[in-house]
Structures are given as C-alpha cells and as structure tokens.
Amino acid sequence: LVAGPVTLPTPPGVDRVNVESARDMARAVADALPADAAVMVAAVADWRVEAAGQKVKKNGGAAPALTLVENPDILATVAASPDRPRLVVGFAAETENVIDHAIAKRARKRADWIVANDVSGDVFGGEANRVHLITADGVESWERMGKDDVARGLAQRIADALQATS
Q1: Could you tell me if 40 and 88 are in contact, meaning their C-beta atoms sit under 8 angstroms apart?
Q2: In the chain, which end has fewer C-beta atoms inside a 10 angstrom radius, N or C?
Q3: Read out DSSP for the chain?
Q4: Are the C-beta atoms of residues 6 and 22 closer than 8 Å to each other?
Q5: pLDDT for 31-77, tens place per residue?
Q6: pLDDT reading at 123 higher than 90
C-alpha cells in the first residue's frame, strides 16, 4: 500500500509506504512493481507549484506569479511499464458526463478498468456511492450502496479477474 498523507489505519498484514508528494508516490509505486494488480485510488493533483529559487517578496499587494508544473501521471506510467501488472485499475471522480469521461480516461491511460463515480453530490464525506465499472467489454453500472460494499464488490471482481488470468 502506497499512501499519501492520510489518517486511515493500515489494514492488518499490509506493508505500507507513506509518501508526501505526487513525485514521491510515483517513485514508491514504481519501486513496488512487479505486482499482480495495481489499484490506483489516490487523487493526486495534476499540477504542483514550482518552487521559487529565492524568497518571493511582497509586491505592494499584488499576488506573485506562480509557475505550475505537471505532476507525473502515475496511472498511465504503471499501465505502460515493462513491469505492468496483469490488471490495472484506475478511478475517475467526475462531475459531468461521468461515463463518457471515464471511457476516454480508460483508453487514454491504457488502464484495464476505470471505476467512475459522480462526485457532484454527497459522495465525499457521505456513506454511499454509485459507481460505473468501465472495462473493454463495456459499462457496468452498480446500484447505490455503502462505500464498504463498493470496496468489497470491487475486491471480489479483482480477485475473480486475477484468478481467470492465472
């Protein structure tokens, strides 16, 4: 388990690597390969602020110009790796055109599956979720259920898929 700065407990029997930044996470994920499956659930920021080479001074109340640098695309990197897992699963948190965006993301990132959900409502901080499993075979929309049930259902699907390919 490669985890960003969270307060969630580590499940029993799991080795955990704690990271602070997207670049740290990319390195830790690469170091964890090869693996049977990669389940990429972290919501890593697409961009980071490039550090200034010197102190940024106040300028009469005007905001300083910040230079943004693209963070590594960990999902796409894992999917393209020579040590690519047999199953690469990504997630898509969307606010509109959920299924269309997830289908495009699966193709663009070369993931096997994308688990998509609409986060425009009460998903963050809520107890339930409705997801769509996007695969090469199509779209499977799951009924709204508790997040623990979503996790158990997804874990079972992953186990079944790995067993079918072994």
Answers
A1: yes
A2: C
A3: -EE-S--PPPPTT---EE-SSHHHHHHHHHHH-S-SEEEE-----SEEEPPPSS----BTTBPPP--EEEPP-HHHHHHHSTT--SEEEEEEEESSSHHHHHHHHHHHHT-SEEEEEE-SSS-TT-SEE-EEEEETTEEEEPPPEEHHHHHHHHHHHHHHHHHHT-
A4: no
A5: 999 999 999 998 788 899 998 889 988 888 888 888 999 999 999 99
A6: no
Q: What is the residue whose two structure tokens read 């901080």? A: 125
What is the full DSSP assignment across 30-60?
Answer: HHH-S-SEEEE-----SEEEPPPSS----BT
Nearest to 124 by CA among 103, 88, 95: 95
Pick from 41, 33, 22, 38: which is nearest to 115 by CA?
A: 41
Strand order of the β-sheet with 131-135 is 37-40, 87-94, 113-118, 131-135, 138-141
- Quote the pLDDT of residue 122: 66
* Torsion sign across C-alpha atoms 7, 13, 18, 23: negative
Copy the structure tokens of residue 28: 């830790």
